[in-house]
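pinging the channel bc i need a second pair of eyes. not urgent but kinda urgent?? the chain im working w is below, pasted from the shared doc
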Amino acid sequence: MKNEDKLLDAIGMIDEELIPEIPKAKESAAPVKHKKTGKSRKAFWIEIGIAAAAVILVVAIALPKVLYKKKNRAVKAEAVYPEMAKYPESVSPVFRGDDYDPNEYRDLYEKWWASREEFRNQPEGYADGFKKFLEKSTGTFAEEAEDKNFVYSPLSLYLCMCMVAEAADGNTRQEILDLLGVPDIETLRATSKSLFLANYVDDGAGKCLLANSIWMNNRFDYKNDTVERIATEYLASVFSGDPEDEKYIEEFRNWLNRQTDGLLTDYVDDLPMDKDLLLMVASTINYNGKWGMRFHEDETKPGTFHAPTGDVTCDFMNMEYEKFDCHTGDGYTAIELPVTGNGKMRLILPDKDTSAQELLKDKNFREFLNNSYTGGNVFGEAMVDLSLPKFDVSYKNDMIDELQKLGIHDAFDENRGNFGSITDQGPDDKIYVKQVEQDVRVMIDEEGVKGAAITVAMIVEQCAPSAKYTFVFDRPFIFELFSDTGAPLFIGVVNDPTSK
């Protein structure tokens, strides 16, 4: 029996041996394969310094009525993620003196650059749907920012809802496709895979690890072709077990923690599985990068931050007379800090008479937020004095209300939800999305920026070059963290850098 046939049987919960080991991908970009669960991916962020962001998004699809009883057998098919050629310094940190070989370095560098380009070179227009989604959704989710810290990952949500759309059918699917900005499911499959590969970085120069998974209930029957398609087209790991079994729940939580380096453990440890679970869909992002121009710790000084609830004292990182890209807009000024080999962070300081919330409600400002990805860069180089507070902010968001405002209704209605693509759904079977949650954490220090995000869905049945800027981020400000392709990974508001 071929490996791919065994994969299909395993994810279809046929009582056979689990999937055998599949050889690792080549060093250059390659399609993601699946293997029997085992080793986790090697993490290079320890070698490249502090800087991370994490997201977890979970969607839970529930089915109150048990249709089929299966053997209580766990199934695992974990994705083998694409391997990239490594950045020369991550292979051999010392290239000097007798150890320096310019030809070796050049060969390693060219190999690394070719690998990067292979991942970036996706079909023309591959991100058009994501751009439309950004234009529709940024303002709706940004309304959550009031006087507290707020962080949101548009890419994690998008990738998670792609998998939900694959499980859905009829008008339930169409409403999701409309929000995701694509005309049909075939376009969505191509869009999702290209977004995943274009923004995936694990090469020693930077780290932006994306991961998807689905978690099934071994009491139910599933359509093998759909499960296989989610595994292959959405680069997802596949699991099944008993959602009331603590070992299965622990395995789910451990998977999320592995993908995000434990940055969101407090959230994950409280994440339940519904006894009526039909499908749990999870998407994670784990980001880590060094500043292109690092701050010096001896320049970090305590200072006052004017939070909405009162002044607080925090540590400010400082840098004087350095060159950065800057922009002055209507009601704000902005600066972009490059992250070595891993995109950039945009910091936006509202004018003293303008709040972050007022800016986020403005359509023109939201277009500016997305312009790194949608075109129209308005930044110019300038000399800068910069004072920026260190922060570690996180945010948990139940996203159903916002998704309903954006036009998704049937998926959340037990009487109208149609998930006939993933299971045989009879006229009396009430299947709907019970939960869509995202948990995000972003932190910065003198070394760089670090972030993680988890998005989970549960389906159940019932400037001019000569200009000089001074940026003192001593009041609420907005930030964006972009991947190397310009895709917004994280958007947030820091109202109090001393509060998590």
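so The first helix runs from residue 3 to 11. and The CA atoms of residues 156 and 283 lie 6 Å apart. — does that match what u expected or am i reading it wrong
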